[in-house]
Amino acid sequence: MLIQIPDVLTQAEVLQFRKELDQTNWVDGRITAGHQSAQVKDNMQLPETSPVAIELGRTIVHALYRNPLFISAALPAKIFPPLFNRYDGGHSFGNHIDNSIRRIPATGEQVRTDLSVTLFLSSPEEYDGGELVIEDTYGQQSVKLPAGHMVLYPSTSLHRVLPITRGSRVSSFFWLQSMVRRDAQRSLLFNLDGAIQKVGASMPGHASLVEFTGVYHNLLREWAEV
Ligand code: NI
């Protein structure tokens, strides 16, 4: 399941992020790539130990834990500290599948990458090209979102970033381990939660809401690893 999550950051936060990111040192993006991806990756990145990356990454994680749509869709167990990349003219990232296990450098903790995230920090008017193209079970999806919005997709998907032909594209990217490993189960829980929310809004206090909510939690209890 691929899902777009709007307004993870406010426009004021996006401006502040861009200001800080413009003033910092970027390095070759191959530093976090696996063997196969290093051959197709051509972009710039902030080092994982960069104080700016760590500080802005924390702001993103706080924003995510306040976002009900994100929580419902991702059911996060562990979030890898967000990284930042920039694609300038001619930069691209060819087809690849993200590494399955990521180690957090500061703690040594391992994160299984169930979901991949791109949070856009440039508005679509600032650059041409740079679409994130994801091969989903429903076909190919081309993603280019307003600044502050993000896309969440299964890390099992083949994906690429098309070459930039004008301007620069700045984004944050990271991975997370979900409490529910299987995409099909996570999608069912997301759809059930959405249906419960809609019934709750149109028929508040309906007696069956208690039962449906119970079914949701009993399924989550059955499938979650915490
Ligand atoms: Ni990737």
Please give a structural write-up.
By secondary structure, the protein is an alpha+beta fold. The chain folds into two domains: 3-178, q2cbj1_9rhob like domain (Jelly Rolls, Sandwich), CATH 2.60.120; 183-223, DNA Excision Repair, Uvrb, Chain A. Helix content is 33%, strand content 30%. The chain contains six helices and 17 strands. The strands form four sheets. Strands 1, 2, 4, 5, 6, 10, 14 and 17 form an eight-stranded antiparallel beta sheet that branches. Strand 8 and strand 9 (110-112) form a beta hairpin. Helix 5 (183-202) runs antiparallel to helix 6. The longest helix is centred in the last third of the chain and has 20 residues, at 183-202. It is globular. The model has no long low-confidence stretch (mean pLDDT 95). It binds nickel (II) ion (NI). Nickel (II) ion (NI) binds at residues 96, 98, 159.
Low-pLDDT runs of 5+ residues are none
The CATH superfamily of the largest domain is known as: q2cbj1_9rhob like domain
Question: Which structural class fits the helix and strand makeup?
Answer: alpha+beta
Main beta sheet? 8 strands, antiparallel
**Count of separate structural domains:** 2
CATH topology of the largest domain: Jelly Rolls
CATH architectural group of the largest domain: Sandwich
How many DSSP E strands? 17
The helix/strand series, from N terminus to C terminus, equals: EHEHEEHHEEEEEEEEEEEEEHH
What is the 3D form?
Answer: globular
Q: How large, in whole angstroms, is the Cα Rg?
A: 18 Å
State the helical fraction: 25-40%
